[in-house]
Write a structure and sequence with these properties.
- With 262 residues, the chain is α+β, with helices and mostly antiparallel strands.
- The chain folds into two domains: 144 residues, 2-Layer Sandwich (Fructose-1,6-Bisphosphatase, Chain A, domain 1); 106 residues, D-Maltodextrin-Binding Protein, domain 2 (3-Layer(aba) Sandwich).
- Helix content is 34%, strand content 27%.
- The protein is built from nine helices and 15 strands.
- The strands form three sheets. Strands 4-3-5-6-7-8-9-10 form an eight-stranded mixed β-sheet, with helices on both faces.
- The protein is globular.
């Protein structure tokens, strides 16, 4: 199921990587500030435009939601919707840090069923489709490896990422974050999609984050779930539609939902 959609998503990632790597570190990179005060570069726009061109040709009846050019075709209740973040981590991209990725997802009836996270500057790509497992291909590897979340079931032994203290502060949850950090083995801010991929690999055990959009999360969901983890909002709602993310190895999820409930 969704074999053709996954194959297309991987081809879209190939096209995105060619554009983004060519502009990564470019001295003539064009940088603008959007109305929400976040940055956008010519690479963000070029990647999303290319993905939209391919989708228009190969999936003309599917809807699209992208960070830079919004929603096209199908309406908000579209049966099939591609959800695109052309460069997740634009701030890293424009500063020359390799922690950025193109996120490509397909949601069917609002449920993400295909996800690709491609980080060419890190030399890694992660992907999943419902029922097909989660996979990673690292630079130089001959074949992809199947992903499995960790078996850590005790908070005091957990390694976690909170991604952005500003996001927790903006949600009025800094005290919750500090209390959580005191109770775990290690707490770090790895940043953006990479934190969630470390979770899928079993390196981290939980990730929590506020101030998110669907295109920040949709591609992460299939990878985490197919690796055996759980993904919800911090208040326990399924999917990437509720403005926050709580991703875990599954064993810690209910405890964290209870901890963060209000």
């Amino acid at each position: 199921m969704h074999h053709d959609d996954l194959a297309l998503a991987l081809r879209l990632a190939d096209a995105a990587d060619r554009i983004s790597l060519d502009r990564f570190g470019a001295r003539d990179l064009s940088i603008d500030t959007k109305p929400d005060t976040t940055f956008v570069t010519d690479a963000d726009r070029a990647v999303e435009q290319r993905i939209r061109e391919v989708l228009a040709a190969e999936r003309p009846d599917d809807a699209i939601l992208g960070e830079e050019f919004g929603s096209e075709t199908g309406g908000a209740d579209a049966h099939r919707r591609w959800i695109i973040d052309p460069i997740d981590g634009t701030a890293h991209f424009l500063r020359g840090a390799p922690i950025w990725a193109t996120l490509i997802a397909l949601a069917v009836d609002g449920v993400p069923v295909v996800g690709v996270v491609s980080s060419p500057a890190l030399g890694a790509r992660w992907w999943a489709a419902k029922g097909q497992g989660a996979w990673k291909l690292a630079a130089g590897a001959e074949s992809p490896e199947r992903l499995q979340v960790s078996g850590v079931g005790t908070m005091s032994e957990a390694a976690v990422s909170y991604n952005s203290i500003q996001g927790w502060d903006g949600a009025g949850r800094v005290d919750d974050l500090l209390a959580w950090q005191r109770d775990v083995w290690r707490a770090r801010s790895y940043g953006d999609a990479w934190s969630y991929m470390l979770l899928a690999e079993g390196t981290l055990d939980a990730v929590g984050e506020f101030d998110l959009q669907p295109y920040d999360m949709a591609a992460l969901v299939p990878v985490i779930e197919e690796a055996g983890g759980r993904f919800s909002s911090i208040d326990g709602q399924d999917g990437p539609w509720h403005g926050s993310a709580l991703a875990t190895n599954g064993l810690l999820h209910d405890e964290l939902l209870a901890r963060f409930s209000r």
